[in-house]
Specification:
The complex is a heterodimer. Chain A is an alpha+beta fold. Chain A has 9 helices and 6 strands; from the N terminus they run ααβαβαβαβαααββα. In chain A, the strands form 2 sheets. In chain A, strands 2-3-1-4 form a 4-stranded antiparallel β-sheet. A two-stranded antiparallel ribbon of chain A has the order 5-6. In chain A, strand 5 (255-256) and strand 6 form a beta hairpin. The relative contact order of chain A is 0.16. Chain B is of the alpha/beta class. Chain B is 34% helix and 28% strand. Chain B has 7 helices and 10 strands. In chain B, the strands form 2 sheets. Chain B has a 6-stranded mixed β-sheet, with helices on both faces. In chain B, strands 2-1-4-5 form a 4-stranded antiparallel β-sheet, covered by helices on one side. The longest helix of chain B has 16 residues, at 169-184. Chain B is globular. The chains are: A alpha+beta, B alpha/beta. The interface between A and B is medium-sized, with 19 and 24 residues.
Chain lengths: 297, 218
């Protein structure tokens, strides 16, 4: 294809778009809505993933000691913890300290605890892991070893929760993949039909072009560009709306019963770029399908 | 050179051309005449490659149209100018754009296209109407735009289907002058017409068609 023809093709594609404004605006609007749904899902996924990653990085564990544990055993446990790579004792909570914490948490209802003859709460160590990478299996071993030590009652750690949430994330990812796939099919259908309508509107011109010796490629390229331009604009507009929505939401801290949950993240640059590329690609494929069957002239 | 060998063309059960054999030499000027439904338009469309014969062979400068693929046919059409009975002009494009279209498809440079289009429109007397739209022109002017589009690419063959069908005698003569000037440059010209006036004044070869067969030649 001669290079000097490309300005002509672009001009034709833009003229086609301007000449069939209504059809293109409807097609563009529907594409933008589809991409918005997909993009929102992606933002949700990115934020959940980041939240889980953040939580994963700050894994914590609680080691509950048996009542009446002697000081030597407690020190042994503390020494064992200090020897674990990446682990830090955040604090030691004595039995009294645990009760104090519980009273504080109950607030005005703390009177409920006054009837207790004994303090039923165990003393515990709270520890955090600086880096969760490669710790998953170790934590199981550590838990087993700690539970086998003198004076240790029970060990609980956040990994179990993390695994459950990661399972949930896989499900969210799968649902996103299915929704994304369906939306892609929808977008493809929209573009194909938009371009079909513009082909129909220009059938006389196509016939004349063929009669004066235009090759199929010469006739098809402006339509392919038309689809690609529509796709690219739909991607850009959708991203712009998503970003505006993000700015609006991130200006207000997302709160849950007065507690700030997390900072909202926007799509990483490569994801945003991928949305535009995907949208452009869908536009191109859609118009390719539409021009696939041409008038036999 | 245009050669037809035992060409049969059927549209369903209807026979449009029946066992037609014809030879038109390079640089010739031929009128194809006959009553409506004689097969004149079908003959031109077959030569142009818009339709394919049911049987038989058509050779254009030695190229068998039955054996060319679509891409080669597209390129062959660039060497053939066709003036359609209904003009086939694009209403939303200017006179200049309609004519230049035939050059754009060949991938020629912008400067060449502009120069050649201006020159051709001048030769058909439409320099002043370059920026007009077809619907702003008279029938005769539209016909001249259609001729300009057909000849702008300096075709080897010029096919014209009833080019003077709706024109008055003065305009008819203008159009024929244009065809003769194109012919003088070496282009083979084939004009399909049922106009007796046109045929009475000519010394060119006339092929008479009726019911899809050649029934006479002058």
């Amino acid at each position: 294809m001669r290079l000097r023809l490309w300005p002509y093709f672009f001009k034709q594609a833009l003229m086609n778009i301007m000449g069939n404004r209504t059809v293109h605006v409807i097609g563009l609007g529907t594409m933008v809505v589809s991409l918005l749904i997909f993009g929102t899902f992606l933002i949700l996924f990115v934020n959940l993933d980041s939240w889980i990653q953040g939580w994963g990085r700050s894994l914590s564990a609680s080691i509950y000691l048996q009542d009446g544990v002697n000081e030597a055993d407690r020190d042994k446990v503390a020494d064992f913890i200090r020897d674990i790579p990446g682990a830090q004792i955040k604090r030691f909570i004595s039995k009294e300290g645990a009760l104090r914490d519980l009273r504080k948490a109950l607030g005005s209802e703390s009177g409920l605890l006054d009837g207790l003859s004994d303090n039923p709460l165990p003393a515990s160590f709270e520890l955090v892991f600086e880096d969760a990478d490669g710790q998953a299996r170790d934590l199981q071993d550590i838990k087993r070893e700690l539970e086998g030590m003198e004076g240790v009652g029970e060990v609980q750690y956040s990994e179990e929760w993390l695994k459950r949430i990661e399972g949930l994330m896989s499900l969210v990812g799968l649902v996103g993949f299915i929704i994304g796939g369906l939306l892609c099919l929808g977008v493809l259908f929209i573009v194909t039909n938009t371009i079909k309508l513009t082909i129909y509107a220009r059938r006389d011109e196509i016939e004349i072009l063929k009669l004066v010796g235009a090759t199929d490629r010469f006739v098809k390229v402006p339509f392919l560009l038309e689809g690609a331009i529509q796709g690219m604009f739909a991607g850009l507009i959708a991203l712009l709306i998503l970003f505006s929505g993000y700015l609006l939401l991130s200006a207000k801290k997302i709160q849950f019963f007065g507690v700030a949950l997390f900072d909202l993240l926007f799509l990483p640059r490569e994801y945003a770029f991928a949305i535009i590329l995907m949208s452009l690609g869908l536009g191109l494929v859609g118009s390719f399908i539409a021009v696939g069957r041409f008038f036999e002239i | 050179m245009i050669q037809l060998f035992h060409v049969l063309k059927k549209f369903g059960p209807n026979v449009a051309l029946n066992d037609l054999n014809l030879r038109i030499r390079q640089g010739g000027f031929v009128f194809v005449s006959g009553p409506s439904g004689a097969g004149k338009t079908t003959l031109l469309r077959l030569i142009f490659g818009v339709d394919r014969p049911t049987s038989g062979h058509i050779l254009i400068n030695g190229i068998n149209l039955n054996r060319v693929n679509r891409s080669r046919l597209d390129h062959l059409r660039r060497k053939i100018g066709f003036v359609f009975q209904d003009f086939k002009l694009l209403a939303k494009k200017t006179v200049f754009e309609n004519v230049a279209l035939a050059l754009y498809v060949t991938g020629k440079g912008r400067t060449f296209i502009r120069k050649k289009t201006h020159q051709t429109l001048r030769s058909v007397g439409l320099s002043e109407k370059e920026n007009a739209y077809p619907l702003q022109l008279s029938g005769g002017e539209q016909q001249r735009v259609a001729i300009a589009r057909a000849i702008v690419k300096d075709p080897l063959i010029l096919l014209a289907d009833e080019p003077t069908g709706n024109l008055d005698p003065d305009l008819t003569e203008d159009i024929m002058v244009l065809f003769r000037s194109v012919h003088m440059k070496g282009t083979t010209v084939v004009v399909a017409t049922h106009s007796r006036e046109l045929l009475n004044d000519t010394e060119q070869r006339i092929i008479l068609l009726n019911h899809g067969r050649i029934v006479g030649e002058k």
